[in-house]
Design brief:
This protein is an alpha/beta fold and 231 residues long. It has two domains: 121 residues, Response regulator (Rossmann fold); 99 residues, Winged helix-like DNA-binding domain superfamily/Winged helix DNA-binding domain (Arc Repressor Mutant, subunit A). Helices cover 40% and strands 19% of the residues. The chain contains eight helices and eleven strands. The strands form three sheets. Strands 2-1-3-4-5 form a five-stranded parallel β-sheet, sandwiched between helices. Strands 6-7-8-9 form a four-stranded antiparallel β-sheet, with helices on one face. Strands 10-11 form a two-stranded antiparallel ribbon. Strand 4, helix 4 and strand 5 form a beta-alpha-beta unit. It is found in: Cytoplasm. Pfam families: Response_reg (PF00072), Trans_reg_C (PF00486). GO terms for molecular function: phosphorelay response regulator activity; transcription cis-regulatory region binding.
Length: 231
């Protein structure tokens, strides 16, 4: 069985060592780097199953590292940062992170979140894609196996969460999903006042799909209720 490799990118050696200590107890293989450019090199040079990134790193910050990773790779990304505002968290999630924890942190909680993200990633890359069909609506094509989206033949680059939201909605046209429904099904976690996270992902998804006030929307807002696919 392939040993799971986790990348830890943090310029605070004490924190990186603490994370590694707890994850090694779980049997994971760890790669530690201290700046953003080293993180990109590690992703390109190794088979990384999950990345834990600080935001404020030398070289490239965590946001830019995530942007570059998401151009080619789909592994889960967890931000671990001293930046604690809601805007920071939403920015991290919109950039393509799957989870966001703030420092100081409980190492056991981080381990639990790592395990949860890896389970979900393995499900998405394994048997759960079997039997899921390619969705074609108008000029929009959504392929769950390749995790690609094209609109009138043009490739649309989505983050993993944006893809999951779109596939969920498009797979149930006209069904209305509340923000709570979307969060629990896409993030696989209990919903705790995470409506802004869903709202921001929907907003960026609409932008990537080329929607504006003068065009028919693929994703329709049902005010006070939730969202539905308008295909």
């Amino acid at each position: 069985m392939k040993r799971i490799t986790i990348l830890i990118a943090d310029d605070e050696a004490e924190i990186a060592d603490l994370i590694a200590l707890h994850l090694e107890k779980e049997g994971y293989h760890l790669i530690k780097v201290s700046d953003g450019r080293e993180a990109i090199h590690a992703v390109q040079s190794h088979s990384i199953d999950l990345a834990i990134l600080d935001i404020m790193m030398p070289g490239l910050d965590g946001y830019e590292v995530t942007r570059q990773i998401r151009e080619k790779y789909h592994m889960p990304i967890i931000f671990l940062s001293a930046k604690t505002s809601d805007l920071d968290k939403i920015t991290g999630l919109v950039m393509g992170a799957d989870d966001y924890m703030t420092k100081p942190f409980n190492p056991m909680e981080l381990v639990a979140r790592v395990n949860a993200q890896l389970r979900r990633s393995m499900q998405l890359n394994g048997s759960t894609t079997e039997g899921q069909s390619v969705l074609e609506v108008g000029g929009l094509t959504i392929d769950p196996e390749q995790r690609t989206v094209t609109l009138y033949g043009e490739n649309i680059v989505l983050t993993p969460k944006e893809f999951d939201i779109l596939y969920l909605l498009a797979g149930h046209p006209r069904k209305v999903f509340s923000a709570e429904n979307i969060f629990e099904q896409v993030w696989g976690e209990a919903y705790f006042e995470s409506g802004n996270t869903v709202m921001v992902h929907i907003r960026t998804l609409r932008k990537k799909l080329g929607e504006d006030k003068n065009k028919n929307k693929w994703i329709k807002t049902i005010w006070g209720v939730g969202y539905t696919f308008n295909g």
